[in-house]
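Example 3.2
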Amino acid sequence: MSKLRLGSEYIPLTEDDAMSKARLVVPFSRVAWLTVLLPFAAFVFCVAWSVLYNFEHSTSTHCQVYNFLPSVSATIGHYRPQRDVWKTAIALQAIVRTLVFMLYYRYYKEHVYKWAQYISNIALVMYAIENTSLVTLSFWTSDENYAFHKMSFITFLITSFVHMFLAYYVMKSCLNVAKGLNDASLKWKRRSMMLNVLSILVACYFFYRHNKYCEPLVYSMFALSEYGVVLSNMGYHLTAALDFATTRLMITGNRLRII
């Protein structure tokens, strides 16, 4: 008789059951990488395709000065096939992120001190809203519904930062596990969060300067800062691969188990 570990519970399995029901076992780290690689690959494709085939239009602004990079909104929402590739990637990663949400919910419930449970719950709510707003800003582009796209983008920025800060705090100070087990994850969380905040501040500066003075290349600097915001956000979410490095997903028939 063998046992399958699921969180803090053990489910007895016979040798025959284990052999007959187990279909596929996947390390969760691969799932975490997939969650990030989907939007990353789509983002790189959208930027490259826009520069190669929509350069003049995607980099033009009301200032009519030279720029060499398109904004994030232009690359993911103004042209095809970029728009379709981005929407597909975001829809797929949103589905996978639901599983990530469930894992963090279970992890926080088991390992966060009771006095900090409300903090971890807020972090999870911010995670869910961040993911939802990413979907809405991607599917309702600035061309289709500017007001809703803008609101979704602002919501994404705010909830993304709040989630990053709270999740970092919870993992650093609120866990009842041995110290040092998640040092690598904390290090990359901190670096990604700092880069994200810096990129937002720099983007705001260049956006103001672009609209105020209409200088050449400033809009491109704003776009480059936007890229930093996007990539640092992806980098933060990639730390889930470190948080659940020993977790595996086992697909048995039509059931999914976390072991």
